[in-house]
Structures
1.
Amino acid sequence: MIEARTSDIAELGQQLRVDAVRASARAGSGHPTSSMSAADLMAGLLAGHLHYDFEHPHLPGNDRLVFSKGHASPLLYAMLHAAGAIDEEHLLTYRKLGSDLEGHPTPRLPWVDVATGSLGQGLPIGVGMALGARLSGSPARIWVLCGDGEIAEGSMWEAFAAAADFGLGNLCAIVDVNRLGQTGPTRYEWDTGAYAAQIGGFGWHTIEIDGHDPAEIDQAYAEAEHQDTPTVILAKTRKGRGVAAAEDKEGLHGKPLDESEKAVVELGGVREARVRVNPPRSSEPRRSQPSRPVARPTFSVGGKAATRDGFGAALEALGDANPDVVVLDGEVADSTRTAAFRKAFPNRFFECYIAEQQMIGAAVGLQTQGWIPYASTFAAFLTRAHDFLRMAAIGGADLRVVGSHAGVSIGADGPSQMGLEDLAMFRALWRSVVLYPCDANQCAHLTATMADLPGISYLRTTRAETPVIYRGDELFPVGGSRTLAGSAHDRAVIVAAGITVSESLSAAERLADEGIPVRVIDAYSIKPLDAATIRQAAADTGRVLTVEDHWPVGGLGDAVLEAVAGQIPDVRFHKLAVRGMPGSAGPAEQLAAAGIDAAAIVRATQRLVA
């Protein structure tokens, strides 16, 4: 049984290298050389400083290990083998169809909390994990294995800044400085001092070591465990360590070793040692308080209110009802209306500043700790975090994302502030829900509903005030819609959402005066769409008009078209959307210029029924 002695750590490092080489060779692909450089680092962590119960991976007292350099997955799987979590047969299924040992780690494995592999994400997520552990009162530590190449990612520097600002002494980044990236040397090669100067400038405790010296590795981990600030261990290593034909050689990234059997012999042969991993730092269950029904705010029918106001008021009520709800914002809390939550529950509000990737990364990390995160900023700026959202979907994360100031209706701020591609972006995510309320009461209900939704849910809110048309006690199920106008004699159906619902109702009144009865559907749930209701309306009228404050690609119009196309014969379809680049103007002027106001809807409907 391997324990935390330097001789044992060296031996375990060789075993991890051998298993990484074997798994990659059997698969015919993988990243063994990237695994070999970090093998001693992970041997020292596994045998001496990681506190983890592999039979109960979700215990709150377990440390968390994130492989930000997810391409080194053979090393992670070799660690699982050494810990007795998987057997030899399982290890050698690496990268095979149906295996949970994927090319880059995902939570298909119970010991993996988040999907990694898109570089620069593990540390921002680790920040969220460390926040979540501290908020829970857990003594668990968060360890993140990073590659030196990914230090070039801007998201890493967002994480360095955030971790220091939050004072996360329970977070340790382990940087495998092996000098080589995919196509050649990294920016600073083996100059760990250059990394230390920059990261230390953010307020991190920095340690520079020989990443192949077991004693230095062990001492560095012990030092990290006694810091009040986040620690980075900058470990100088050699890619392909232990195999002369591969060590510090370019051109071998992402390739199994040639003559892998000879490499195994050179590394000392196959071992079957098992590691005695330290038990969790605490066996206490996560402290939880029961939630209560949400006392949703209500807005008076006939009045006007912005949906962002409905969101903010409902979020505060939700925070009072459910102590597991946490909120993150990108330094626009007064605009997104999360400021009310911040004032009421300051310990559960996290200011992420203008760092949207870090904001979403932290939300991903927080939800691994049992928290229910809502992350909010302007819809336009969520595009910066799209890769984090994509990876969160791959990892099965449960997130609630709210984008305010969507569409041209924000007015004079101009196109840089207008979210016009957000619906398409979120609809494209796996297992996502996309909601676009038209009034404050509807928004308040959907805000509360999101707390219980799995996967990634997106709520689009509006800056401008809109008419309150629904009562405060009405319910809006995900996947539903509301038919707001209609008769047996309708000649067309207008499908709208959000800001265009009231415009469509105004258009319907004008059209009725002209003897053109139309049906108006509020498709507040864009994904999943209430396809059955829309198909029936299309069959009844033979004409469908969609209208949205969004680019014409990927939004409401395309969702409706997908539902109708090939299902209802002889349907005439037209889509109103923002087709020209907006400038600065007032909200009403913007809607008119974009051709999505009531007058434009009347004209389009007249043409459709002609």
Note: The two ends are 83 Å apart (CA to CA).
2.
Amino acid sequence: MRDKFMSNPLINETSPYLLQHAHNPVQWYPWGEQALSLAKEQNKPILLSIGYSACHWCHVMAHESFENPDTAALMNDLFVNIKVDREERPDLDKIYQMAHQLIIQRAGGWPLTMFLSPKEHYPFFGGTYFPPQPRYGMPAFSEILTKVAAFYHSHQAQINEQNRSLAQALQGGYESSAPEQINAAPFNQARAQLGQNFDHTHAGFGGAPKFPHISNIERLLHHYVISARQGKQPDEEGLHMALFTLKKMALGGIYDHLGGGFCRYSVDDLWMIPHFEKMLYDNGPFLGIYSEAWQLIETESLFKRTALETADWVIREMQSPEGGFYSSFDADSEGEEGKFYIWTPAEVKSLLDEELYPPFAHHFGLDKPANFEGNWHLHVYHEREEMDARLDKARDILFQHREGRVHPGRDEKILTSWNALMIKGMATAGRIFVREDYLKAAEQSLDFIRNTLWVDGRLLATNGKAHLNAYLDDYAFLLDAILSLLQARWRDGDMAFAIELAEVLLEEFADTAQGGFYFTGHNHETLISRPKSFSDDSVPSGNGIAAHALGRLGHILGETRYLEAAEKTIQAAWSSLMQMASGHTTMLLAVEDYLFPPQTIILRGEPETLKKWQAVCQKNYAPQRLSFAIPTGSEAKVFARARKLLPRKDDLPGMLANRKAEGAAVAYVCSGYQCSAPIMSLDELTKVLFEQAMPDNK
């Protein structure tokens, strides 16, 4: 038995999740040669446990089983135990989540518990959370351990056969057939599927547990735009589904009404009680979609308030002094889920006077029965009919009081892909609400990545000791984020960095034979499978974002290699897309740009004049419009590196070379490969934009 002050090999890691288990009596190892060789030498199966620091049920299983000396002794005797942070190693998580689904025939989750053969590392059994005693229809974890170990040593032939079948299944999932012609059929299919899954009473898609599915909401907003532009009746029902869902989430308990920001998901249909962890990768897209929804419907002040409060929370609590954004906040504090966020009427009444308490209690349900384990979690029961200064004052008082509580643990790991999602969210909010502080926060994160995680022309996935090579999501999300930030403001060097990222995407991740992109680079560690997925999961599809961003960069620069890579990705994804279009809504962004090439506006001229022109270009919600304001004199510094990758005789790469500055300002408006003559007046530009404007919803 290990003394509680002793440690296992995880003590040398930097991941907060791995360090949480460094003093377990379990002899945990990180994934690596030491553990894998030991399992092979001793012919012991591997117990692979995958989780993350903010995961509530990961904590539960740790307390119940991994901190139990008897259970730990059993694990140490029968297995080589490997602990993986799924945020550092999404490659392993993707592979073994898929394997779990194939073996168990149901979706996985966290903690993920898989038992692997020691030589080939294929799983032969697995599950998620296992209880210490028989309950929930599951046997005790100790019973699982003994039976799995016995099965491994007595059924080698059966396990070997299953390994062969699993290998075929994992590889077979990436085969696809290209369409004769890319068409708009999946748009209507996705719209119909979203309509079928929509909860007309409480909003959202599907039942509890209810996830935000932000990419679905984005799809509905885009579908509304497409239907209107094609001269048909705008899809008002789809628009309602999107806006109603955004409204119910902003009013629900999934949103932190005192501090801002969203929790991971709702455990009920009402959006009332969340799983209390707060993840960076959720809040970046949340920030972007609420900003864009307000841009479309400016009368909905709730959307603006939600976006601003979320951005303020991120800057206040999620940004490191060095500029990068932290990963998450735990669901638990002081060993209890949600303790930081809950209240009792008596406590609130002691903090608010007789003028403030009644409207606050009425608004947030403190005058109703308890909704969370005998306590009250704030959920809006009655919407504001008008601005109520009393509510805002009460919220501020309670927020200040809550700051004195023990905060949930913060995972201060900085992940490139998740930072990219927040850079895009901040850039979108900063552009729409004209907030320089949001744009500065985005710039600081981008600078941190470029200065710290961009090494010898390659990205790292995370900071800290791990120094893991970056994945598809890191490159694709960051490329997409830079294009969003460039539309908010032009800055020397960012476009050059975007081109460098695009080049590595093609060089390291592209499947040149079948199309699309692998999740891991060509020089990555060899694993039992090399994932290449096209569907969305807890984050947008890396393939979808890669195709979307490369397509847009291809149109901006006139670079056919990028456009061809985007097209081949769509073709590779087509069969899985057509099977379930609503599960591939990010990929549909790339399909949309392929069928309806985006309008690209290049503004050149003096900075102050460009600000006015840029504001006109970006006033309305126009997802198929890209607008870049490049000040006179920028190009020589901006594209020194880019010219080495995309050689051109001129200072600017690609088609940008022809967009020369003339006078105080000039606009070049292009659609696909066709461009208008230079536009020399703001009135003329406004007229062009007005002719293509969306129906007025404001």
Note: Residues 694-698 have pLDDT under 50 and may be disordered.
3.
Amino acid sequence: MATTPPVRIERHGAVAVVVIDHAPVNALSKGVRDGLAAAAASLAADPGVAAVVLSGGPGRFVAGADIREMNLPPDEPFVPDVIAAFEALDKPVVAAIDGPALGGGCELALGCDLRLASPKALVGLTETRLGIIPGAGGTQRLPRLVGIAEAIAMISEGRILKAQDALALGIVDEVVEGDLLAAAIARAPHAPKRRLSQCAVPAGDPAREAAAAAAALKGAKGVPAIAEAVRVVRASRTAAFADAMADERATFLRLRESDTAKALRHLFFAEREAGKVPGLDGAKARPIAQAAVIGAGTMGAGIAVALADAGVPVMLVERDAEAAAAGIARVRELYERPVRSGRLTQAEADRRLAAIGATADWQALAQADLVIEAAFEDMAVKEDIFRRLDRVAKPGAVLASNTSYLDLDAIAAATARPQDVVGLHFFAPANVMRLLEVVRGKASAPDALATALALAKRMGKQPVVAGNCDGFIGNRIYAVYRRHAEYMVEDGASPQEVDAALEAYGFAMGVFAVSDLSGLDIAFAMRQRRAASRDPAERYVVVADRLVEAGRLGRKTGAGWYAYDAAGAKSVDPAVSGIVAAARAGKGIAPRAFTPDQIQRRLLAAMANEAAKALEDGIALRASDIDLVFVNGYGFPRLKGGPMFAADAMGLGAVLAEVEAAHASGGAGSEPAPLLVELARSGRGFADWKG
């Protein structure tokens, strides 16, 4: 069967249109690069061609490199050479940008003499998001258009500009409201040659450039590519173009092979894999025109804002009028913060706020296509809500629980329509955090699950489908991680030593600081609920219980694992040291020292081991899903790729040895997962496991 070439040339009189047609996004794969190189050579030798238009077809241009090829050795023709071939043509070259021109696609457009865009166009150099820098002239041509300060900001942030913003900066020359391709063909013969490689970098304000560099480095969060991007962009003013291009390319190739870039590429692919859910073939999402949230506390208010931000009108339902009014006040406060910081206009905040109502009348739920329960984490409370909801909600409405630990099937059993019930586990603050655990109950209908996934996409969330168990994916694994951190404290490490080791690894906060932030009473309630079923052979540390009994619930009471002053600054509290010492003495434990590396390795191994059990149990579909959960919901450093990727990097043989030591320390519940044992002994990694 004949295949359509990814690049073809169409003639419109003396204008040649080079059409890139490589679904879905015209990535610069080997085939596309071959086609573009051949097209450039053909056009250079054709005297009948007076001008050239580069087009990605309707709704497209070129969305960047083929990320899959970055795990392979570089292969000719290289993107810089392809762009140089078009720039070298002695006839005008016009880019017709009708969609994303990102990364290498933006660099291709910068190699043209004129850039026309439709209102749908998106432009940006996004390489730093993958731990690399632009490698095909982006760091050199962009400053010649926008100046060094703006180029540093754009590249370091991986900023994506809409068409009008790109026009305002001079990156595109015109935004065409009508037929973009027709306009490009008409303009091309009369366009002047303007090779950016031959243009000077505009004189800039040294103070502004220094400030842009400082801001980029401050926001780098450990990404080496940011500092390199700043350096190479600043060189554009003083270095010869060819020398700067060589430096850019060498830096790009070096960063491409770095551990950071490999981890970020892993997460890039993980996000795309997460949407592939077995059993959903042909399932269509149910329409959601109106939503409701039961419970207008901190979580419920955040969920309502996330829905309104996505254009979904929402009604908050509370137990009485006073609680409903308090809920709206919380919502209003959530919108006041971005308005104060300038991230949102007052007019837009007012528009979104107008989409949120609050009431104590449960009949309001009858209008909702989606109802999300966000009440207190208590099974009796949730079962009562779903029984009442069953009587009010309209047929076909998706009924979701925001539970973070409880049995979704038991909650669904309180209704006569368990097929409509799914879990939507938002992470606090719900209007900010990107992760959304979508929990699939045993009776959840495919179209109910498809609705949840479509909603996540609409809200800009990263959905990960989880099976039903205590804590689902994230909290199940996190509970084990926290438990082993407590074992090390009882064995001799201080809470601040554990937290410092985790923060040195890349976590924004250590496990004990996080406990104080979320509230020690939450985990205490979970332990109380599990007490009757806890294996007597499992090691149990009483320190956290003693803190709660002493009224130390974390930041909200001014004391938890740490002490907090009126401004919220934490400090080591001798009272905690006393409670820890008493717990050690009660078990006759002689404290020993732990190095940061020992703490990091033990906790990573504990996470990976429990995650392997979640894979075996079918709670997580794939190892990369677990990485997404921890990177997007629990502060695991993105630059490490997630706990499963990091475990593979550590080597599963070493992980297994650490887990065996953890088992000796922790007793029942800490046994090595059979999957981990199998993979380690066969020399494979989690990346090799396909379920």
Note: The first strand starts at residue 7 and ends at 12.
